Amino acid sequence: MIVSGSGVLQVVAILEQTRSSYLATFLSLRKAIQQEAVVAEDNLKFLQCLEQPCRTLASATAKVHRLYTDTKIKSQHIALSSHTCLTCCNLLLRWQTAA
């Protein structure tokens, strides 16, 4: 992990040797970055599990729209749920292709 690399360790060593007032803040920020990196890795694992189902849903957009139109379902709840699901899938696909 980048926050435990040799460069970071050298900075910590220098701050310790000079008894810098920035040491505590630096160590605190390093710890926060490490914790958020773990959260990001967990998020990535979760999102990767959703990748294939979202691809399937995204490719079914036309079918869902046709079904919605053909059956004349006018419930705003269903429309909102379908739109939200498709929007999330499209965002995930864009995120995946950007990575």
Summarize this, please?
The chain is mostly helical. Helix content is 83%, strand content 0%.
Description:
The chain is mostly helical and 99 residues long. It has one domain (2-98). Helices cover 83% and strands 0% of the residues. It contains four helices and no strands. Helix 2 crosses helix 4. The two termini are 19 Å apart. The model is unreliable at 73-80 (pLDDT under 50).
Largest sheet: none
Task: Quote the average pLDDT.
Answer: 76
Number of DSSP E strands: 0
Question: How much helicity do the residues have?
Answer: over 70%
The helix-and-strand class reads mainly alpha
Radius of gyration over C-alpha positions, nearest whole angstrom: 23 Å
Strand content: under 5%
What characteristics describe this protein?
99 residues; mainly alpha; 0% strand; rod-shaped
Helices, strands, pairings?
Elements: H1 6-17, H2 23-59, H3 61-70, H4 76-98
Helix pairs in contact: 2-4
